[in-house]
Design goal:
Layout: H1 5-13, E1 30-34, E2 37-38, E3 46-53, E4 56-67, H2 70-73, E5 85-92, E6 107-109, H3 116-126, H4 143-171, H5 176-188, H6 194-203, H7 207-210, H8 216-226, H9 237-253, H10 274-287, H11 291-297, H12 301-307, E7 320-322, E8 325-326, H13 336-358, H14 361-372, H15 380-387, H16 395-409, H17 418-430
């Protein structure tokens, strides 16, 4: 039987071994009153354990290794931090171990105390080739257990994504409006064109728009010109107007357009062409100055939706997906799924980040409420959980499923997953 030290930690922490007639390797009776708390810092693996050896009660640390000889391999006998270890828990006892003062360290060997079925189930999980390790078992786990763990991983996801927000916020000298503008721009790129949208926002500060808030054509010229789309010849009046405006404004503000080759059109539905997305983004800027301030003020989910709905998009885009290409009637407004995407990936994130940054928990609560108010997302990752029997009622839960896949399932971290632990603990307790 081969396994990791991590698995032995799991077995010890949850007492998934035969606890009857426990004794140390030198034959002394052993009773485990408390296994201790996992130590996430340097030093012994478990702290504040409580045990009784041969009638004497001990309180201290526990160290876990696959073999007793690993104690010497890790040079613990030379480290005073390990002098208060009261028990050495190992899979196999292959040598006597002493502390730095020469006293023998009591050892518990678990080689004959762990059910083979527990290890087999663990191996089946971490070697699984399914969409995710417990795909064939997750439907046996109580929905309450799954829901609780999904709530935890959703918070993890928001915390992880906050790091990028705070990094950009620092770069922008604490300006939340400008930071929000950068992330909205990135979101309008919808993955394929997220990078050029980020580059565009960095090259075009939001404060420039405030100077032209009553001139929609100048805002559109700034965005399309800076995006690099106005450097060609046009036959129609609207793009030529934008080109003339941008020529003037770029000289006035010392602007240089980004490389137009950054934008991706290949294998995209025309509805997602970057030119149409830029038209929608420009209309959002025209409609809503200081958008983040409005997001903080609006508490009704429907009103948040309205911030991104009914955008004043120029009529030119009703018959164009690109400047020099006519098209049949084009649906220019953002669809419901696109607005939901913005609310999930930008608005909810910023409500959470702002609440965390300012210590105002009510904004974090609003972020969760917003996610709970949005219909569940649909993609291949989420479908794999649905097919396995997991249900999700809203975007709160589907966002959590995305985090579950990325941070636990794909990395085979079953021993750190509440769902995996439940499956293994049940197996260990039933063996």
């Amino acid at each position: 039987m081969r396994f990791s030290e991590e698995f032995l930690h799991f077995v010890w922490q949850f007492r998934l071994y035969d606890q009857q007639q426990c004794q140390t390797t030198d034959g002394k009776p052993l009773q485990i009153l408390h296994c201790g708390f996992p130590n996430k810092h340097a030093g012994p693996d478990f702290t504040t354990a409580k045990i009784i050896i041969d009638g004497t009660t001990w309180v201290g640390q526990v160290e876990v290794h696959l073999k007793s000889s690993d104690w010497h391999g890790h040079q613990h006998q030379q480290d005073m931090a390990y002098d208060n270890v009261i028990l050495h828990v190992v899979w196999e006892h292959d040598s006597e171990v002493k502390r730095s003062d020469g006293t023998v360290l009591p050892t518990l060997a678990l080689k004959d105390k762990i059910a083979s079925s527990l290890f087999d189930n663990y191996q089946n999980l971490i070697t699984s080739t399914n969409s995710f390790p417990c795909e064939n078992q997750i439907n046996t786990v109580d929905n309450f257990v799954i829901g609780n763990f999904l709530s935890r991983v959703l918070v993890e996801r928001m915390e992880d994504k906050c790091a990028e927000v705070f990094e950009r916020l620092a770069q922008l000298n604490g300006n939340w409006d400008e930071t929000f503008y950068h992330f909205v721009a990135k979101n309008f790129g919808f993955k394929v064109n997220a990078l050029p949208m980020q580059v565009l926002a960095q090259s075009l500060p939001q404060n420039l728009f405030a100077k032209h808030k009553d001139q929609s054509s100048q805002i559109e010229a700034l965005i399309f010109g800076q995006a690099g789309f106005l450097g060609q010849r046009f036959d129609e009046e609207y793009p030529n107007l934008l080109k003339a405006e941008y020529t003037f404004l770029s000289k006035k503000y010392g602007l240089n357009p980004i490389d137009v080759s950054l934008w991706k059109f290949l294998r995209m539905r025309p509805q997602n062409f970057p030119t149409l997305r830029l038209a929608q983004f420009a209309a959002l800027i025209v409609k809503s100055n200081h958008l983040f301030s409005k997001v903080l003020e609006v508490k009704n989910v429907k009103e948040l939706h309205l911030l991104f709905d009914s955008l004043p998009i120029h009529p030119f885009w009703q018959t164009h997906y690109h400047f020099n290409k006519l098209a049949d009637k084009v649906a220019t407004q953002l669809g419901k799924s696109s607005i939901d995407n913005l609310l999930i990936n930008t608005v909810a994130l910023f409500l959470f980040a702002y609440g965390k940054y300012t210590g105002q928990a009510n904004f974090q609560t609003r972020a969760f409420y917003l996610l709970e108010s949005i219909q569940p997302e649909q993609n291949n990752v989420i479908s794999s959980y649905f097919d396995a029997g997991v249900t999700a009622q809203n975007a709160f839960q589907t966002q959590a499923l995305l985090q579950l896949r990325k941070k636990y399932c794909d990395m085979k971290r079953c021993l750190h997953c509440g769902i995996g632990l439940k499956l293994l603990k049940n197996d260990g307790l039933n063996s």
